[in-house]
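Consider the tokenized backbone below.
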């Protein structure tokens, strides 16, 4: 019996246990928080800050890798590829092995915070310092501080950073910790079902989470993609046309269910009422980010599809 089914069975009315946060709520908060974090990789204000350090801003990858990896310190491509997982290792190495010659992690961390400060002020205006932002930041920070770091290298590295003082920056940092906490758990779920980095993407594309063309941004060659597809076909997870079989869909359902379950800790600590209150508070900021046009309409994360 799943945790959600147990919650329903254990409730006198057959409904949700009011003292527990269901796994679906962890997914809902991820959908709300992920765009707030992802502004980092698309906002022109952030590109200006990292461009001033010397990184190319012709596309997002030269700054994406050092900005996301900076909390880990001046690590090389092998470490970054292992923690980012679904990126082709050669692509990671091309962008990260020389990244710290351009600027050190501390300078990158400072630049990304300056960029988010400017981007959020542009997006939210006076709402960046509103009572609603203060409340949302406090709730999100409580959840982030409850995120257990064991086995979660990217979450732990971000959680070890000092908290900024401004509430809009606290909200962004909390969103970052929580999305990396979830992402670290997602990798554990992929490993549990035996999906290697390329297979993780092929199996996700096979259920229609995003187009194959969108997943090509992760750097895998056509030959590597085909080889991964053939491995999944041999396991009965993908058919000859690249579509997921029922077994493949069930395996991806298990991955997503396990990811939601592994992401529950911070929300259980926050509690159902405060978790719901945070979701309500985030709605207006989410609408602003989505409506800004900064983020791509199709995501490799499959938000809105799974």
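A designed sequence for it:
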């Amino acid at each position: 019996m799943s945790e959600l089914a147990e919650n329903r069975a254990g409730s006198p009315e057959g409904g949700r246990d009011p003292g527990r946060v269901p796994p679906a709520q962890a997914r809902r908060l991820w959908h709300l928080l992920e765009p707030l974090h992802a502004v980092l990789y698309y906002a022109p204000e952030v590109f200006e800050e990292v461009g001033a350090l010397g990184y190319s801003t012709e596309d997002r990858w030269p700054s994406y890798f050092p900005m996301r990896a900076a909390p880990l310190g001046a690590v090389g491509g092998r470490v970054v590829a292992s923690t980012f997982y679904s990126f082709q290792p050669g692509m990671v190495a091309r962008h990260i092995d020389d990244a710290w010659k351009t600027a050190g992690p501390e300078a990158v961390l400072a630049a990304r915070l300056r960029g988010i400060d400017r981007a959020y002020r542009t997006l939210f205006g006076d709402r960046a310092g509103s009572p609603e932002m203060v409340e949302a930041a406090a709730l999100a920070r409580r959840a982030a501080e409850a995120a257990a770091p064991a086995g979660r290298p990217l979450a732990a590295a971000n959680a070890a950073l000092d908290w900024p003082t401004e509430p809009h920056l606290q909200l962004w940092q909390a969103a970052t910790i929580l999305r990396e906490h979830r992402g670290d758990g997602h990798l554990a779920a992929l490993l549990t079902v035996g999906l290697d980095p390329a297979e993780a993407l092929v199996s996700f594309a096979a259920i229609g989470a995003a187009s194959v063309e969108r997943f090509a941004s992760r750097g895998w060659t056509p030959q590597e993609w085909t080889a991964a597809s053939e491995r999944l076909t041999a396991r009965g997870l993908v058919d000859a046309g690249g579509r997921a079989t029922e077994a493949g869909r069930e395996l991806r359902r298990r991955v997503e269910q396990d990811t939601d379950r592994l992401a529950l800790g911070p929300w259980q600590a926050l509690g159902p009422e405060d978790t719901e209150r945070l979701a309500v508070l985030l709605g207006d900021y989410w609408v602003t980010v989505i409506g800004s046009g900064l983020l791509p309409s199709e995501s490799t994360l499959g938000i809105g599809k799974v």
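DSSP finds 17 helices and no strands in the chain.
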